[in-house]
Amino acid sequence: MLYRLPAELSQELRDVLITTHHVPEIEDDEKAVSNPISWQSIDLHPTAYPVLTNLAFVHLSTYRPVSAESFARQAVQADPLSPKALYLLGIALAGQNKNKAEAIRLLEKTCGTYGRAHFSIAPLLTEADRLPEAAQHLRAYLALDLPTNRDLARQWLKNLEQELKRRP
What we know:
Mean pLDDT: 78
Number of strands: 0
CATH topology: Serine Threonine Protein Phosphatase 5, Tetratricopeptide repeat
Radius of gyration: 17 Å
Order of helices and strands: HHHHHHHHHH
Number of domains: 1
Strand content: under 5%
Number of helices: 10
Largest sheet: none
Shape: elongated
CATH architecture: Alpha Horseshoe
Oligomer: single chain
Structural class: mainly alpha
Low-confidence stretches: 1-9, 16-42
């Protein structure tokens, strides 16, 4: 699924956003929520947020953002201060391209704990036409030790800065 991008963004910046945040749609995501193995884990400890966050992570890793959101929301209910649960919920929402304001808020809360949140929040801010904030998060991401997408983040930041200079 592709993010809807502001029309005034340069084509180069649009291409970077599209290539960095394409999440394949899974038609059978609802089946993942009813997976008996997942529910057996929860039956052992229905409020154990580590089990719920691990399930959310597994579902995100297998491109099932709807079920990941469900597990992450349960994890947040079990422990509202868990940075991992907040981060996974933000990623699950972003992966579905829904509740973007909530996704931004959740990811901003976790930037101090999960440096990758800086990179994950940038497309949401760019899509919301909050380019200075997106650039700030990319700079913070690049300041981390060995970010996994360093070259991509550099190029994206360069494009954002060019876009900001172009605007009045």
